[in-house]
Write a structure and sequence with these properties.
single chain; four-stranded mixed sheet; alpha/beta; 2,3-Dihydroxybiphenyl 1,2-Dioxygenase, domain 1; 2 helices; 8 strands
């Protein structure tokens, strides 16, 4: 257990929008709702969970993955990369680097890079 990721918490500007996009993606990856409260929600897979929260302590309403801080989260997606990419726009996600997809990470790295409406990026890594 030592060294394993316990949880990640994302502060989001719009909780309903975040739960729509993240809830769909995490559900497709096998996560289940873990906690739910007026300002946030979390999903869990095994011992790891991810939280989205609309905190009153936010100092900005925007996230920029190109600034210092979180750039992206990467998830193993196995052979579901293409299926997830096809469905992603219906859930608030946009494919990044479409001209290089699915090899935007290099010729030996099959993955999709998606951004949600708030600018948070995920990498879905194929098998």
């Amino acid at each position: 257990m030592i060294g394993l990721l316990h949880h990640v918490e994302l502060w989001v500007p719009d909780l309903p929008r975040a739960t729509r996009s993240w809830g769909w993606l995490l559900g497709e990856l096998g996560y289940v709702v873990y906690q739910d409260w007026p300002a946030g929600r979390s999903w869990r897979l095994g011992d790891t969970y991810l939280v989205v929260e609309q905190s009153p302590a936010l100092t900005s309403a925007t996230h920029d993955r190109q600034r210092p801080g979180l750039n992206h989260l990467a998830f193993h997606a196995g052979d579901r990369v293409d299926t997830l990419v096809d469905a992603a726009p219906d859930h608030g996600w946009t494919l990044l680097f479409p001209d290089k997809h699915p090899y935007a990470g290099g010729p030996d790295h099959y993955a999709a890079y998606l951004a949600d409406e708030d600018g948070f990026e995920v990498e879905l890594v194929g098998s």
